[in-house]
Design a protein that fits this description.
heterodimer, A: about 375 residues, alpha/beta, Glutathione S-transferase Yfyf (Class Pi), Chain A, domain 2, Rossmann fold, 3 domains, four-stranded parallel β-sheet, 18 helices, 8 strands, globular, B: about 475 residues, alpha+beta, Uridine Diphospho-n-acetylenolpyruvylglucosamine Reductase, domain 3, Alpha-Beta Plaits, GMP Synthetase, Chain A, domain 3, 17 helices
Chain lengths: ~375, ~475
């Protein structure tokens, strides 16, 4: 039986609903109806119900997207849209029908050597997002920010399995997760600081789903939480101007609550908490508020934050679409009057930064504000 | 379509809009055969494929769209405009295949004229996106349809839509000042810059509500309002529907300008309102009424309107339920609360003058409940969208266990609709108030207009001699070849 079959009832109920269209990140870029949640849910339902089969284009449509947790958040009743996407991708992967760019991204991730974890570290920075980036330059500001918070947390740059999991390659994800678990056991780690929301998502949500148990003594903390606990006024903040906080898509899957019915009312901006609640959202904002930063927000914030393009592997599989999403996100921030975007996600920070040339906006990783 | 012809047309479309903006894969085209009409949804539900376009094209400019239309004329193949795909009448169903033009790349907001308080935008802009952008500047396009999250500005106008607050601010056709249209021969025209004049017939309203039959709306200038200083709601329970209707009529004829009046009949009051809002009511007719604007005016309007409600023995239920309805008004359109298969259902909304309103409601209810009793039909209604001369009945039917066979289901569906439309017309109402005609009601248009249909037909023949524009809708037939 397919993984998707377990969601046939949800797909049945969702298949004709056009209501999540404003949240359709990729469709709002391509203007193609088959990229909307409705388009995909109808397709998935027909496949789950045995009325259609996977073909080349059908598989592509499921990958020309993030996991679409934004539609899940926008939907008043929060149908498990991201789960249907995950299960569909797992079916596609297992049937060996994944599009070539997806296979390439998974293979490259699988071939990355995780290296050995730091030995005997009580507290460890697990840099899963940085490992996916393949560029550890953002480790430096994170390290300096942790130092300023009087925390000694050596870094382990390793693929967590989040990318492979999001792309449906659960066999690869399980193997990568197993290596992380074994490394943590061997190192006697008690506190893992996740370098970004995707890493935290892997440790707290994906591993249980894959049947990978972390060592019992281990506690997972978000880097933004750790930094907000030790915050002091830092230099460089005054140069930011008004800031839009960018929340990555995995954050949505870590939140306590997604958006409420108020958040989908056109023009509603009264209470930012209506757009999603949880430590993953409040920690970076708490830190910025403590630093005296002026924040701006619009309707596409927290669980409704549109993708930077760097979520769920899209930047590696369909970089043109991902680049379009990054551009839209930067332009949106500028429309809100933001001079800077600050994010707690190294993936988002790096990918958005790549698309700033020609635009009058800067992007900062949250840790960079404390590292000056 | 012959394979070679298909390839030739595809090549020409690629040359006009670019290869990235032409799709032919069935996985992409499938959704373009399905809007919110029960019929294509039923076909998908039963494992069938609804009629699909041969091509989906996304023009990036009005010039590109005009070139696509000229090409379609050359080959005499249908052109079907697509906005948000949220219509409930099958207006986008490509009955005879052809080219579906998705207008969402034409989505620029062109200008906000703060002095005249108007906005000019391209037709493919999403309702939600437009409203958010206007709200950020302190304005609103006071058209709040249930489909605001999916529908486009062009769709609002093409189907003469109504929004939740139309009772005060009017329907889409009341808000439009002028439009740009691509005509069936590919010419681009603009209507006069203002809608009210004595400068000849009003061409504007020929295109508004024509659902693409006379051309494709590509741009519109719409009237705006400032965001209100105050917006308040109140709910009442009337002893019966008659008392509620009389109170509503009285309020409208006294020109108290309510933002909204939603009066639910007794089955709705009992079943829907209690279930959805959790309000403990078990009889009577429930009304939500709202006012907005300057605070001092709202105070006066409320005082006078509430006095009228009291005069008709309404129980004041306070502000909370009305506020709840307002804040949750879109919940009803998300699954699982929205109507869906496997049920058979339809919204039969129509509008008539006050003298015919109650007879029509009771008459249609009796006809449908008696004739389809064996099918366990559930008929219910509310009255919203009030005018100084009449009101809309938003009535619906549901059959929870329709025939499994798609052909039998469709036959029953069409029979119920035929009965409902017959009642609408016999009681002096019209085919529809705000959802449009589409495929669903196309077969009734000729009868509704009577000898007036020759006006529509004559215009169609003059503008679109090959009948390529959205064929099969509005009482017009298929493409005329040769």
């Amino acid at each position: 039986m397919s993984h998707l079959a377990a969601y046939t009832k949800d797909l049945y109920e969702l298949r004709f609903s056009p209501m999540c269209k404003p949240a359709a990140e990729v469709a709002n870029l391509t203007k193609l109806e088959s990229h909307t949640t409705r388009g995909r849910m109808m397709l998935l339902w027909r496949i789950a119900a045995g009325m259609a089969e996977w073909g080349v284009r059908e598989a592509e449509l499921i990958y020309e997207s993030t996991l679409d947790s934004i539609s899940e958040a926008f939907d008043v009743f929060h149908y498990p849209v991201s789960q249907t996407m995950l299960k569909a991708r797992a079916d596609i992967w297992e049937a060996d029908l994944a599009p070539a760019p997806v296979r390439r991204a998974v293979e490259e991730s699988a071939n990355t050597d995780a290296g050995a974890p730091p030995t005997q570290a009580e507290t460890l920075l697990l840099a899963g997002e940085i490992a996916q980036l393949g560029d550890d330059s953002l480790l430096k500001p994170i390290g300096r920010a942790l130092e300023k918070s009087n925390l000694n947390a050596p870094a382990w740059v390793a693929q967590t399995g989040a990318l492979a999991y999001a792309l449906g390659a659960w066999d690869v994800a399980r193997e990568q997760a197993g290596k992380i678990r074994d490394g943590l056991k061997a190192g006697g780690v008690h506190i893992i600081i996740a370098d970004g929301p995707e890493t935290a998502w892997a440790l707290t949500k994906i591993y249980p789903a894959l049947g990978i148990d972390l060592p019992e003594q281990v506690t997972v903390k978000l880097l933004s939480t750790v930094l907000s606990e030790g915050v002091n006024k830092a230099g460089g903040v005054s140069k930011l101007g008004p800031v839009m906080v960018h929340d990555s898509r995995p954050a949505c899957l870590l939140a306590d609550h997604m958006a409420t019915n108020l958040a989908i009312l056109p023009g509603y901006l009264e209470d930012e908490a209506a757009f999603g609640e949880g430590e993953v959202y409040t920690a970076p904002r708490r830190l910025l508020d403590a630093l005296g930063v002026e924040r701006v927000f619009g309707a596409w914030t927290r669980s409704l934050a549109k993708s930077s393009g760097a979520d769920d592997g899209l930047w590696l599989t369909y970089p043109r679409l991902a680049g379009g999403l990054a551009g839209q996100r930067l332009d949106y921030a500028a429309q809100l009057g933001a001079a800077s975007i600050v994010t707690d996600s190294p993936l988002a920070a790096a990918f958005l930064t790549q698309h700033t040339p020609g635009r009058d906006i800067q992007v900062k990783l949250l840790a960079e504000l404390l590292s000056a | 379509m012959y394979r070679l012809q298909h390839q030739m047309i595809e090549t020409e479309l690629n040359n006009i809009v670019g290869r990235d903006y032409v799709v032919t894969a069935e996985a992409d085209r499938l959704i373009y055969g399905v809007d919110y009409f029960w019929l294509p949804r039923m076909l998908v539900d039963r494992g069938q494929t609804p009629p699909l376009p041969d091509f989906v094209v996304r023009p990036g400019s009005v010039d590109e769209l005009a070139a696509v239309v000229r090409l379609a004329n050359q080959y005499q193949i249908p052109v079907i405009p697509w906005g948000g795909g949220s219509g409930s009448q099958g207006g986008i169903v490509p009955v005879y295949g052809g080219i579906t033009v998705d207008l969402k790349r034409l989505s620029r907001m062109i200008d906000i004229d703060t002095k005249s308080q108007t906005v000019t935008a391209q037709a493919g802009i999403g309702g939600y996106e437009l409203e958010c952008a206007l709200n950020a500047r302190g304005y609103t396009l006071p058209h709040y349809p249930a489909s605001v999250h999916a529908a486009t500005l062009g769709g609002y106008l093409a189907a003469r839509g109504s929004g939740t607050i139309s009772t005060k601010y009017g329907k889409a056709e009341d808000m439009v000042l002028s439009i740009q249209v691509v005509l069936p021969n590919g010419d681009v025209m603009r209507t006069l810059p203002v809608p009210n004049h004595a400068a000849g017939p009003g061409i504007l309203q020929l295109f508004v509500g024509a659902e693409g039959s006379y051309g494709i709306i590509t741009e519109a200038t719409m009237r705006l309002e400032r965001l209100p200083e105050e917006r308040r709601f109140r709910s009442f329970l009337f002893p019966d529907i008659h008392a509620g209707l009389e109170a509503g009529r009285h309020i409208m004829l006294d020109r108290l300008q309510p933002l909204v009046i939603r009066l639910y009949d007794e089955p709705s009051t009992i079943k829907t309102v209690r279930r959805v809002l959790g309000a403990e009511v078990d009889h009577g007719a429930y009304m939500v009424i709202g006012f907005d604007g300057r605070r001092e005016l709202v105070d006066v309007q409320e005082k006078l309107a509430f006095a009228i409600c009291a005069q008709y023995k309404a129980e004041d239920l306070g502000e909370e339920l009305g506020r709840q309805w307002w804040e949750h008004r879109y919940d009803f359109y998300f699954p699982p609360k929205t109507l869906d298969l496997p049920w058979m259902f339809g919204t039969l909304d129509t509008v008539c003058t006050y003298d015919k309103l109650e007879p029509l409601y009771w008459g249609k209810k009796q006809i449908l409940e008696e004739r389809y009793k064996a099918w366990g039909i559930f008929y219910y209604a509310h009255f919203s969208h009030w005018f100084p001369w009449g009101a809309m009945i938003y009535d619906r039917f549901i059959i929870e266990n329709p025939p499994a066979d798609p052909d039998e289901a469709l036959a029953l569906h069409n029979e119920i609709w035929d009965e409902a439309i017959k009642a609408n017309l016999e009681y002096g109402a019209v085919l529809n108030e705000h959802h449009g005609v589409g495929l669903k009601l196309a077969r009734h248009v000729r009868k509704q207009f009577g000898s007036g249909f020759q006006v529509l037909e004559g215009l169609k023949h003059a503008l679109d001699p090959h009948n390529i524009m959205n064929p099969g809708k509005m009482g017009f037939g298929p493409v005329k070849r040769g």
